[in-house]
Amino acid sequence: MTERTLKAAVVGGGISGLSAAYYLQKQAKEQGISLDLTIIEAVHRLGGKIQTLHRDGFVIERGPDSFLSRTKTIDSLAQELGIEHKLIASGSGESFVVVEDQLHPIPKGSVMGVPTEWGPFIGSHLSSWSGKFRAAADLVMPKSAGSADQPLGKFMRRRFGKELVENLIEPIFSGLYGGDIDRMSLASTFPAFYQIEQKHRSLIAGVKKDEALDAKAFTTTSEGIFQTFENGMQTLVDALENALSGCTILKGVKVDKIRHEQDKALLRLNNDSDLLVDEVIFALPHEKIQPLFEPAGLLKDLKEMPSTSVATVSIAFSRAAIDSSAADGMGFVVSRNSDFTITKCLAMHTKWPAHVPAGKMLFKAFVGRTGDEAVVDLSDKEIERMVLEDLRKAIPISGEPDFTVVTRWNNSMPQYQVGHEARTQAAKEDLNKAFPMVQLIGSSFEGGGMPACVEQGQAAAQEAIKRHQSKK
What we know:
Blueprint: E1 6-11, H1 15-30, E2 35-41, E3 52-55, E4 58-61, E5 67-68, H2 73-81, E6 87-89, E7 95-99, E8 102-105, H3 118-123, H4 129-136, H5 152-160, H6 162-177, H7 186-189, H8 191-200, H9 203-209, E9 226-229, H10 234-243, E10 248-251, E11 255-261, E12 264-269, E13 274-277, E14 279-282, H11 286-293, E15 307-318, E16 331-334, E17 342-347, H12 348-351, E18 360-367, H13 380-394, E19 403-414, H14 420-434, E20 438-440, H15 450-470
Parallel strand pairs: 1-2, 1-14, 2-10, 7-16, 14-20
Antiparallel strand pairs: 3-4, 5-9, 6-9, 7-8, 11-12, 12-13, 15-18, 15-19, 16-17, 17-18
Helix pairs in contact: 1-10, 1-15, 5-6, 8-9
């Protein structure tokens, strides 16, 4: 008896969707399953937010520029794809925070703003003496009585007080997530802090000695905490696309409707064709998925999940134009009490020296966050002007930039607000009852970092294969 072919579709060609497709193909081959796979991508290229630009000897990332070395997910994937020899490790340097328009070094040993070394923390000008004493109260404060699903801001202020949170912790988390820490879910953003508090009581004492966290992996003065590829992150996308040569890839095509037909899903595409499949993996932002299931009364809670829009400005200079030790650091984040449009700035020439020509510097500045997103809609020239003005306030710059590259990411950063895990889990369970052949993955659901997206793709592929085998 001939085994029935598994017909599957992956909707979305970003890193989550490409990973799902790759692992579907890999696991089907390992299990001896015949697979008919279609990838559907709305634009005319794969990779989603991963976009690498090569210009004048610079390697410029319009989207994510790296992934954390402590997670081995992408290392393993790169090895399978035969591109592990192209991996490179990040450089190291001091990081800064702008408070009331002044640039301050982030105290050595800080982990997401939590101090672990007393000398640098006491010597820092980020907090007054009263603020330092209040932060030190973490050492004697009892652990939280509530659950991990509480506002990150409330949790941190309880442990360290208002001053340290406003001047250091909030700028770091806002720079990373683009959100409001008073709405951000601790459980969905940095659950390790809650776990450490419950285990060690004090975060200051626990962060440094908790082996599960590996504090050094969050310290920019440590070399190699990030990784990328010699020619940029596009290397991974290209390798995945090449590995997927055995499937159908539809670019510039969208799914307009989905219907449950017997035990299959019928996808209506905007090219006036239909696709009937056994399994569908949606790897799209939640704003794109929710309308497809609205006619069935599903995924209503996803409609309320906010996303932040951001823009990045990559700006190149001659090294002779900048004479400042801060320019050779890893970059800076900005507190809300500063008159800056920039929320974060990375010194790419320090982080990735191999991606910047000799005698040059490259900064990547971010603008836009919850409550301050209108700036993203300004013209390129206006955004460039504001970013350059902020850079000149932070770092003494005597010359003009060689060039700038502006990139906008509208609704690109889903906000994991309190209750995120419960809402997304409930949405998936309701969807599974009506469309048991559909899975949802991506940065809207279980982690926005690249390793988390790859892991979701791998898990979704495994689930699809498992269901197919159960139907034998």
